[in-house]
Amino acid sequence: MNIANAPERMIRASSTTGTHPGYMPGFGNDFETEALPGALPQGMNSPQRCNYGLYAEQLSGSAFTQPGPERTWCYRIRPSVKHTRRFKRIEVPYWLTAPAIHDDIISLGQYRWDPVPLPEDGRPLNWITGMRTMTTAGDVNTQVGMAAHIYLVTESMVDEYFYSADSELLVVPQEGKLRFCTELGIIDLEPSEIAIIPRGLVYRVELIEGPARGFVCENYGQKFELPNRGPIGANCLANPRDFKTPVAAFEDREVPSTVTVKWCGQFHITEIDHSPLDIVAWHGNYAPCKYDLKTYCPVGAILFDHPDPSIFTVLTAPSGVPGTANIDFVLFRERWMVAENTFRPPWYHKNIMSELMGNIYGQYDAKPTGFVPGGMSLHNMMLPHGPDREAFEKASYSNLGPEKLDNTMSFMFETRFPQHLTPFAAKEAPLQDDYIDCWAGLEKKFDGTPGTK
Ligand SMILES: O=C(O)Cc1cc(O)ccc1O
Ligand SMILES: [Fe+2]
Question: Which residues form the active site (predicted)?
């Protein structure tokens, strides 16, 4: 069943329909915001007593001593130690964490999947139960690597909260609208936008318009940052002002609630009697944000040849080895193709990085058919791939006038680590068994005589 045809009964719409309180522009800025006047101390972080009887608490997203430390000061109704009680382990069987290598699964191969459908039994899915891990890479215990997930959401979390101690999440919606009610404010998210939810931040996810499906890159390592622009200079690509961080918004609600924590790949639940989204004011540079991919300004080939896809990097998460990302988030969006005497789609290649791609909408130039919106592909470390036969023939023989690639948005989670398929990706998700055949028709053109064929 296609997600778009899901019966109405599967969709439990969100109760949160209020207008959004607003966002602040900038990437990694030192923001300050208060939902009540005077809630934020001025000139200091820890006054003897805070206004409104609030508790001051620091959320540290980096080592204290990291150059450019990332932290946020929160002024909240209760310290967050009151938001966790005794933990009970629970199973979340479809959300897997590296290392997760299964002897009976072969990750060596070119793989492609159709969009993951909603479960046929109609059971509702929320942000936690609807997460489907496709690949894992690296090791959460050493804080390197990533996981790629598909989420399917048909119901809101109600009095249920979550945080991941393992990871920052990069969320890439493909269908439906979600609202992330976080400790630091509210983010509404729809296709063509992305959100970054920092490690350790508590939130619940509501369904605004559903069902919702999308992709998640779970980053176990250093945070995503804007790439160095090198000779490109100060402008284009993702411009910092287009990132939006929510203003403070809090809840003062005393109702039985749960908090689920993802910690070293395990899930634990704790019961509390109030909403943990109780931060009235905050300041700092460790905060969630969203970004509209339609504001991404691509820079590309304006005379000849096809550059490396790194020119389309939106965000990069460093690995510690200079220039060798733990994860690059790369965007293939609408753009003009003008290169002369050039094979314009991606060249055939074999790459030490492993490439997981997803289609948000439209057609991807190297794969005109089969790689559909909501679908994913994986070209793992040192596995050759490139345009299918149809794309090769068209690009080799078409007249090369300026051409706009319109209505197209695909992306890549590219990591320096090999990606391992999960049992879900290998056995349950709609894997295209015949994907490899897209190259079968590439014929031998060489006949020993010179000249282009
Ligand atoms: O494999 C792919 O389609 C992604 C990709 C695109 C590109 O323009 C160059 C290299 C590359 O891996
Ligand atoms: Fe590639």
Answer: 306
